[in-house]
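Before relying on records like the one below, remember that each one covers exactly one chain. Contacts with other chains, cofactors or solvent are not represented anywhere in the record.
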Amino acid sequence: IHNILSNNHYKDILDTHNWSVILKVLKDREEAKTAAVRPQLNGLLGYPGHVEVRRRAAEILIEVGDAGSMTPLVARLNVEPDKETRVAMAEALLKIVKLDPTQAKMTTDLFIKLLIDPDERVRERAATALGFLKDLKAIPGLLKQLAVKDNVPVEKIARVRFYAVEALGKLKAAAAVPAIIGLLQVETDRGVRKQCVGALGQVGGDPAKNAVLTILSSQAEDATVRAEAILAAETVLGPALEPILLPALQGLDTATDAQHVFRRAAVGALGRIGSTAAHPQIVLEITTHGEKVPEVGTTGWSALLAILQRAEGANHDVEVISKITALQTQFAEKAFGPHKEPFVDLLKACQAKREAIAKQTADQIAKLGSEEAAPAAIEELKKHGKDAIEPLIAALANPSEEVKKKVVGLLEEMTGRKFGANQAQWQEWHKTQ
């Protein structure tokens, strides 16, 4: 056999009818995968002499993923009696579908038929392939995999249900929403439940949205399934998700791995939707869980950074910038490894925001001497909060009595203190804050 391979007679051996020699030659997988012998390999899918030859040929085609093998695979899979060989052939076809779903459209009818194959492994591959093919005519067959009878799924294999639901989600099949919701009522497999929630998010619409929110709000639901519900709800609710997520985060009472998955998903979503009200809760999650579970810390830093970057104008929630910066002492020296970068980026963003706020504060103070500009400037300074206090105290040195009067009024309103225009007294008080 070594001499045969060395002298490029591999193709000739595959053309023989000696199955034992063919099997030995097929062990040289790299040679068998070459395009030069593809016609012979395709022909071996129907080899009558020995089932192992057909199976070995199919297994090699799994690695190849060549569309040229599609027709012989379809033809043979329709009649192949051996279970293991059928699985290998279905897997080889699935590989082709994944590589080029458009070119593999001819396999749709076969995979729909294979949804009722007696072997669950073939049904699983069929459901997976139909998700890639995205042909609407597959919907009725896929829906049958979600059927429930006597409060039990008709399809007994969870992985088949999983990939059927996944396919319906990819197809955005609105007709599947009632079936998915019905399956959720009885489904016990966590992976399938997560897939159901994800599919509902992909399909959208009010019934799907309401079902997702029910899952998200349920304290009895598995935390990882609720985490999936967050991602699904985010696609249909956007910023409206904030008043649902914050109470859900605050309601977590333990620090299990599953609840950390939920924490991370919730914090990430609040960052992506730019939830300004979530700042304190995100900081709390970081300080409480960030060291023990670095992923929570990383997601928290990134969420805060996203919120700061999405904020309109520099005068945005300056108090929380102070809180974030204060965390530097606690976390900067920690060995976060790959999780440290989002924290460093966040601190840079905070500093940039502070500088921008300081500049805007100075600009607004300069307008206080103008009768026309002063009212708008005062409103802006109020928005700047505590970050405006120090430059306002400095502005008490302004020679204009009108400016001083307005500055004193702002300082008293913002701090509740009554030091008049006494700059030294204001400075002494500010040092203690």
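The two ends are 87 Å apart (CA to CA).
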